Amino acid sequence: MNLAWFRGKGPQLDEHQRERLGRLLAAEVPDDRPLGQQRLVVLDLETSGLNMRRDLVLSIGAVVIRDDAIDLGEQFEVTLLRPVQPVSESVLIHGIAPSALAAGCDPAQALLDFMEFLGPSPLLAFHAGFDQRMLARALKQTLGYRLQHRFLDVAEMAPMLFPDSKPRHGGLDDWTEHFHLQVHQRHHASADALVTAELALILFSHARRQGIDSLAALDSRLEHWRRRQNAQML
């Protein structure tokens, strides 16, 4: 059978990239291990806009939480090659210059590098649904890879664990101000991942005081909290 036409419809990967893709580890399922024994990857993406069907991932930043601390020896940052990128409102916010995008890393290389860094670990992000869908779409289109890693949303964890604290809009800036965290740079993927990780450690500490000390328990409590929030909106 001639597969040239079929291959032409999918991602164009060289042999080495296909080998790397085949070696990626399967995602872990949240279990009952204490949070302090988990390796967690905190992710932030900068994108060309907020349209999850059309816009592109421009940069990826990530840090690792391990042993109840941010492991500064494990950080990830990459800007993707996007040579023809219009200057949108979003681009003006995150400040990634067209020259930086034109000199960026090949998207297949960048995404493989990130997935190798991620390994089987669960992911944390602020407004995780957006990052999850943007990353999943980029992986599917660029590598033909289906993302199955579990995401937990720090933007949901914060109001669930601190129901009496009501920052103005509930955004990352509001919660970092609420907990008096120092933010060195906003709308920069690695810096946003770092402050999200700092916020997550505060939330984990408070979760333990509420008897929540595993990803499985945290996942279950979040699901119950979502159902309660949805019911209150009806």
Largest sheet, order of strands side by side?
3-2-1-4-5
Largest sheet: 5 strands, mixed
What is the number of beta strands?
Answer: 5
How many domains make up the coordinates? 1
Distance between the termini: 55 Å
CATH topology call: Nucleotidyltransferase, domain 5
CATH-scheme architecture: 2-Layer Sandwich
Order of helices and strands: HHEEEHHHEHEHHHH
Describe the structure.
With 234 residues, this protein is α/β, with parallel strands linked by helices. The chain has one domain (26-233): Nucleotidyltransferase, domain 5. The protein is built from ten helices and five strands, in the order ααβββαααβαβαααα. A five-stranded mixed beta sheet has the order 3-2-1-4-5, with helices on both faces. A hairpin with a 2-residue loop joins β2 and β3. The radius of gyration is 19 Å and the shape is globular. The termini are far apart.
